[in-house]
Write a structure and sequence with these properties.
Elements (H helix, E strand, L loop, with lengths): L1 H39 L6 H24 L14 H10 L1 H16 L3 H4 L2 H15 L7 H19 L3 H55 L4 H29 L2 H18 L3 E5 L11 H22 L3 E8 L3 E8 L13 H10 L3 E5 L6 E8 L3
Parallel strand pairs: 1-2
Antiparallel strand pairs: 2-3, 3-5, 4-5
Helix pairs in contact: 1-2, 1-7, 2-4, 2-7, 4-7, 8-9, 8-12, 10-11, 11-12
């Protein structure tokens, strides 16, 4: 009986908030009428985009309210309201999300006041269920009706606020535009890095090598000892150039990934990081390998994360977890450092985010002041 009362009380609170929002929607009709009239007479056409933005915020609040009751998020799919006044007017009228919100508003005027049906059930439920459940030890029959009303209200709101397929497609197109731009930016940055490494490292060493060989050829006849020393220096310079080239190649696609797979490459990173790193492979050693692009992105995330831990966190320990899921590969890097990571300030997080976004993955950073810092990445792939 007590659980039924608690559940009915929670449902009533949900219905009270829904009814208050519905009452606000009735008042909002005035704003809509003013915006419509202003658009018709052109003078107040700037009101329409602002009214649509306000409707989006109200619908967003309703989505959050419904999600708290049902435990399931309701996605949003809106075209960003940007550009000139003409463009914003066009988006306000043509965005499929506007029609979805307007349809929900019209229906919400009718079902938003289900609280009126729930309140009379309370005294009836306390009497009937008090006797039926308290004295006779039976299941309550009246108070659960209040919960059903809240479930009904949430179910209708979910159905009405769910973006249409056209809206979801438009939003997906916008996301792909953003990820494509990020991928292009990441590619250009990678090309600049490779060019810089080749120019400052391998090319400089090769130029020095060529000069030493030339000097050795000139000194060979008159001073063989000096020529031999120059050739020794040239050999050292050639080894440096090879080292620089290997470093550049590892930056493009680490050979260790091809030879040892992701788990072996991550373990090698952990061993050479200078930290005490625990690696949980999630059983990937025994399973099918992910695509090369996915493994390279995961490797880059782990390498950059461990570098950040060593340079900025102040921690001497870290934890790396790899896991295979039905949708792809997940990577989780955690440290107990000072936290407070500021992504716009750098730390390589933007590069990681762009590389993950290029594969349509998700990148999340949690780093409160005082730690811990957790980087979580999910890369979609087919196993």
């Amino acid at each position: 009986m007590w659980k039924s009362v608690q559940r009915a009380a929670m449902a009533t609170v949900h219905l009270v908030v829904a009814a208050a929002m519905c009452f606000g929607m009735y008042l909002f009709i005035t704003v809509l009428l003013i915006a419509a009239a202003g658009t018709v007479v052109v003078v107040g056409c700037w009101l329409l985009p602002e009214a649509v933005l306000l409707i989006r915020r109200i619908a967003g609040a309703k989505r959050n309210l419904t999600a708290r009751w049902t435990g399931r998020e309701i996605p949003e799919a809106y075209t960003p309201m940007t550009g000139t006044l003409r463009e914003r007017l066009r988006i306000s009228v043509r965005d499929p999300g506007t029609l979805t919100d307007f349809r929900w508003m019209l229906c919400y005027y009718l079902y938003g006041a289900l609280l009126a049906l729930a309140l009379p059930l309370w005294p009836l439920g306390l009497v009937v269920d008090g006797v039926w459940a308290g004295a006779l030890r039976r299941d309550p029959v009246v108070l659960p009706l209040i919960v059903r009303l809240a479930d009904t209200e949430a179910r209708w709101s979910t159905a009405l606020l769910m973006p249409s397929p056209k809206a979801r497609l438009a939003r997906r197109v916008e996301e792909l535009k953003e990820t494509r731009a990020d991928a292009i930016a990441a590619h250009e940055a990678e090309l600049r890095r490779i060019e810089r490494d080749l120019h400052d490292g391998a090319q400089a060493n090769l130029v020095a090598l060529s000069m030493r060989i030339g000097l050795a050829k000139r000194a060979y006849d008159r001073d063989p000892d000096a020529a031999r020393k120059l050739l020794d220096d040239a050999q050292t310079q050639a080894e440096r150039a090879l080292t620089e080239l290997r470093h550049v190649v590892r930056g493009i696609h680490p050979p260790i990934l091809t030879d040892r797979g992701l788990v072996g490459a991550v373990r090698a990173l952990a061993a050479s990081s200078g930290l005490t790193v625990t690696v949980d492979d999630g059983g990937l050693d025994a399973g099918t390998r992910a695509p090369a692009a996915v493994e390279a992105a995961a490797y880059f995330v782990v390498a950059e994360s461990l570098t950040n831990v060593a340079k900025h966190s102040g921690a001497d320990r870290a934890e790396v977890r790899l896991a295979r899921t039905r949708r792809g590969l997940t990577v989780r890097v955690r440290d107990e450092g000072r936290g407070g990571v500021d992504e716009p300030a750098g730390s390589g997080l933007l590069g990681m985010r762009r590389r993950v976004a290029a594969l349509d993955g998700t990148f999340e950073v949690t780093s409160p002041a005082g730690g811990p810092t957790v980087i979580y990445v999910e890369l979609p792939c087919v196993w």
